[in-house]
Design goal:
315 residues, Nucleotidyltransferase, domain 5, 2 domains, six-stranded mixed beta sheet
Length: 315
């Protein structure tokens, strides 16, 4: 292997968003991005209702994966991996989807558990932390589930995954437009209940820094700064305060889906689920006692490549 590391490609097939990352990864886990892409494809729409992936959603994802297949081939990578998370995990017709991806795209997809998703997410988060941040609670709010990763120096990580995500909550509990007071309170109650369960497993958190990753928290960081275009350098390692999140929450909840589209920093396609993401984040921070959190623009997709690099080095 060259001293500059291996050129690796990873695809993350999420419930709301699919992500591509081609990166050079060194033996010590440092990543140099070569090509990246992300698409809001809503693979998990309707899955919470009947545990079935919709034909239109599968078609959207497969079309994008075919496009990315050509990109990966053009870069002549040393190795590649594709992973799927909550929507595919929970779908009764997941074998049909996985078979189609293999036949029509050529990817063997690794359907990872919530705990494994959390572990690889932590690998990604750790690769981008600023100096001095050691003991952390990683928080990954996804479309179908939310992962907690408590990682203290010299101790085994504590991983917890809860079946609350922005797509799942929106479809199950936030269907009115505009939202009603009762709907909002029901979500707050559910998030509080699940956060308390997670807290019981995690234990005291006075010595840790909250680090959030994935689209909900990075979107709120962009909205807090009123960014007209997404700027990773201004998102990554940004300190997002709970008081700011609550201000954004009031603004988001007061608007219809159509009205949210004009909010600065809100990514197109996220206007329907941003309310759920904000309620999940603010509720968790309140229950766990965090007044602020560090925003990470790296997470699962980077961790997937670091994990692949580690396994290839051991082989």
């Amino acid at each position: 292997m060259a001293s500059s590391g291996m050129l690796l490609a990873g695809v993350d097939i999420g419930t709301l968003t699919c992500r591509l990352l081609i990166s050079r990864v060194t033996v010590d886990g440092k990543l140099t991005e070569v090509k990246a892409d992300r698409r809001i494809l809503r693979l998990g729409e309707g899955v919470d209702h009947d545990q079935m992936l919709r034909p239109a959603a599968m078609a959207r994802v497969i079309e994008t994966l075919q496009e990315w297949r050509a990109v990966i081939n053009a870069h002549k990578v040393d190795a590649q991996i594709a992973v799927a998370t909550s929507a595919v995990r929970n779908a009764r017709n997941r074998d049909e989807f996985l078979r189609r991806v293999k036949q029509e795209v050529g990817f063997e997809v690794d359907v990872i558990s919530g705990e494994e998703e959390a572990r690889r997410t932590m690998l990604g988060i750790r690769s981008g932390l600023p100096a001095g941040v050691t003991n952390i609670l990683g928080l990954d709010i996804g479309g179908g589930s939310t992962e907690f990763i408590l990682d203290r120096a010299g101790k085994l990580p504590v991983l917890r995954s809860i079946e609350i995500g922005v797509v799942r909550l929106t479809e199950r509990m936030l269907q009115h437009d505009p939202l009603t007071v009762d709907q909002i309170q029901a979500v707050r109650d559910l998030v509080c209940q699940e956060a308390k369960r997670a807290m019981a497993a995690l234990g005291p958190l006075g010595d840790v820094t909250l680090v959030g990753t994935a689209g909900s928290i990075t979107t709120l960081a962009a909205m807090a700064q009123k960014l007209s275009i997404y700027e990773p350098i201004r998102i990554h390692n940004y300190w997002l305060k709970l008081v700011t999140i609550k201000e954004l929450e009031r603004e988001i909840l007061a608007k219809t889906i159509a009205q949210r589209r004009s909010l600065p920093g809100l990514e197109q396609g996220r206007e329907k689920v941003v309310a759920a993401g904000t309620l999940i984040l603010s509720g968790i921070m309140e229950v766990l006692g965090f007044a602020e959190g560090l925003v990470s623009d790296v997470g699962l997709r980077e961790g997937v490549l670091i994990d692949l690099s580690q396994r290839r080095c051991k082989a």
